Structures
1.
Amino acid sequence: MEAFSDGVIAILITVMVLELHVPRGTHWHDLNKEAPVLLTYVLSFVYLAIYWNNHHHMLKATRRVNGLVLWANMHLLFWLSLVPFTTGWMGQHHFATTPTAAYGIVLLAAALAYYALQAAIIAEQRDDPILKTAIGRDLKGKSSPLLYVAGIALAYVDRWLAVAVYVFVALIWLVPDRRVAGMIRAAER
């Protein structure tokens, strides 16, 4: 499951980079035309890297999987597979309202899918509560969907506020959750 997920995420990053076009000129100002696409790529790359990191740590704390866990993982990968599409749409249209809202919808759906995967894994590990203990109250995990909803709504008020919310959520997740890694190391001793 981990190797398959790693491969899918690697392919998604590759698909996104193919949307970047080399500027025609050789001066810095020639990048201006491609700046929105480049900026959306950077944001989405960071998001996919965050998901990959947290998914990796979560699976390290997983001893058993069942059908529900496998399908929950596929559900997450489905939403992550839409990141390149909404990234391209938002970047090519210079952060227009609807593409920016759609980007937030995909981020929201991916966050909810990740939460569902996490819940399925915890349920399957009922006699081995490493992940459940490490996650604790999961304030970041519970607040992120609310922030995405705010970002989606803000896209229709001021698209830059929506983008700021998406960047803020990425920043709070940028540092991997040390609790999970710490609990895994403690359990291995």
2.
Amino acid sequence: MSKVVKLLAVAAVGFAAGILLAPKSGAATRRDIKNKLFETKGYADEKAQQVKDAAYEAADTLRESAMNLRDEAMGMMDSTRTSAERVAREADALKEEVKARGTRATAEAKSTAARVKKDAEKRLR
């Protein structure tokens, strides 16, 4: 049971005991009951407003946290995209370098093979 409900229950029991045991006229008792009801309503309204304010504050905090998380995620996504683009550019550059080296190696291998063949043919004559 929440503190507010317990407090209201204790107040109601105390109020009822006070009314039943007090030697007052019916009009005075009705007036006291009416006054206590207005006090209790005012107290309940005040507590309800406090709960409402706390709920709005919590909602604002959650909304702000969600926006912060969204901004962080967007930043991480941009960073990841930038890194991926950089890696792709580097891979393209390396691919071109490997292709050029492969072409040179092939040319050197053909040249060497031609020299070896020529030397072999010379020696076989």
